[in-house]
Amino acid sequence: MLQGSQSWTFDNSPVILSTGTAGGPFEAEGNLGRDFDHLFSDIWMSEDSFEKAQTKLMEEAAYASLSKINKKPEDMQFVFAGDLINQITATSFACRSLAIPYIGLFGACSTSMEGLALGSFIVDKGGADYILTGSASHNAAVEKQFRYPTEYGAQKPPTSQWTVTASGAAVVGKTGTGPKVTSATIGKVIDMGLTDPFNMGGAMAPAAADTIEAHCTDLNRDPSYYDYIVTGDLGSVGLPLMKELLQQKGVMVTDDQCIDCGLLIYNEDQNIQAGASGSGCSAAVVYGHLLNRMKDKEINKMLVVATGALLSPLSYQQKESIPCIAHAVSIERGQN
Amino acid sequence: MLQGSQSWTFDNSPVILSTGTAGGPFEAEGNLGRDFDHLFSDIWMSEDSFEKAQTKLMEEAAYASLSKINKKPEDMQFVFAGDLINQITATSFACRSLAIPYIGLFGACSTSMEGLALGSFIVDKGGADYILTGSASHNAAVEKQFRYPTEYGAQKPPTSQWTVTASGAAVVGKTGTGPKVTSATIGKVIDMGLTDPFNMGGAMAPAAADTIEAHCTDLNRDPSYYDYIVTGDLGSVGLPLMKELLQQKGVMVTDDQCIDCGLLIYNEDQNIQAGASGSGCSAAVVYGHLLNRMKDKEINKMLVVATGALLSPLSYQQKESIPCIAHAVSIERGQN
């Protein structure tokens, strides 16, 4: 039900019954390689285009999440998913093979939590017994579309982020064993006038701060309620900015409490400048690494704040600033 | 709540409290010119790009729907909207000025009913008191992106459809006076292998038929329950195909019962080949003309089946076929 101005609390606490993740060869070498269910050794993934490879990534994560609980696509009532590719074709083609009634989303890198928030609401209120949600991104497909084909070897400035080649999917159900989705806060479009597409973290930080503040106000909750406030993906430029903005708003978070998916996935030697990004990043890190840590009882409660830069190459060329958004979902270990 | 495999029935019958529509000069000359709240006399709409003009169209429809019931953007909890432009920037920029918590959708021309279905579910289950939903398209922005800049004067074959320059928005609330949203059916991706991007109606007809069949099965309802089954947009090629497919499935609809937004909006002299399309088409025709007819008691019950072709120029170049989808929402006049 609605709580405050822009949040939902889930009275029946929908359960994340299962998750699946897939990644590419560069992600295999990163910090979280062992957290992936499937790792492709080749960025083409046996496909003839990078967009088709991204479709394969999404399918792989979806089928991995289903197979762990012995479910088939036809056991799901709806899939809530999207990505960054024009007209979200990579997701739509994955949903063609899944053949599950499909709600297409666009929230750029915030899509992961947009899908989990909506899907959890639908399950919580009896609109589905099971839903599937997730997102994927492919470095070569996304870089080509937003910037340059990676084959050009174009250089990027230190504030830029590296689009991950990864996917994450989750099955949410009414009852069962697993982490519970307890609330969600839907963000507004926040645009502070930043125009540099090589500094997404800086552009998105105010959106993350706005949504976290709204979440705490709506739920009358101190940030200390959460072990972690997990952003995805602000990187090394955006994360400190977000903390500073929260401090200005009087929302007191600690340094250790704030972690960012874009800073977790790769290791220091991978030269990814300000961190990782891409709509598959938070999906893969949350549905892989972080829920694994929750399973190991290292995390009890986390607020995942997925951030999206809603620009396009065309809006940039037309000299628009970068509109940003962040959606937050709280996930708690519960008694299981 | 979930009914059957992929439908929701709304126990509290959310109400369409208000709608707003806007159109361009070509739409003003069409059959439904008088049904628009606002008509722009210039396709640039005083903006310096067609994409910004589309944003203006969306804003105009949104503010028109709000002002009719003396509401402001801040009275809405959420906006469910999207469009066809890459990364749905036209909608995101409109939502930047509206500053309502925003759920971005992508369903191509099915976005109108995707938004109404989701928004109605959220209102029905106490997730919002008021939501805003809608979509827009601009002929010159969409044609440029998917085909050629209109200034080139490229010819199109007779099976092609004309992207409308129009927008439609609706405010849905828990209680009040207005047409009721009584159920929704979420479609699957249906792809029969068609590859011609100049024949969207033919490609989308099977998706419409599939969703209508699912709706009737899920609700155990004969199509005769509805005065009209309104597609958007199959055009003159797709509509007869859909009727034939329904007949093959044993879903008996009558000729008079099936109308198509893409065949209503323009007049015969406007040379728009197989009809109109664009994500603003069904939004404008349903939230303008058809709900005006319901207000006049000429329509009591209609099933609006918005269809989307989920391709991109790139997926076409990569020789993919056209994945399609259709989402259906039933709107009933009720006692008001």
Automatic annotation (TrEMBL), chains A, B:
InterPro entries from the entry? SpoVAD (IPR010894), SpoVAD_sf (IPR038369), Thiolase-like (IPR016039)
Gene3D superfamilies, alphabetized: Stage V sporulation protein AD
> Per its record, what are the GO molecular function terms?
acyltransferase activity
Return the SUPFAM superfamilies for the record. Answer: Thiolase-like
Q: What is this protein called?
A: Stage V sporulation protein AD
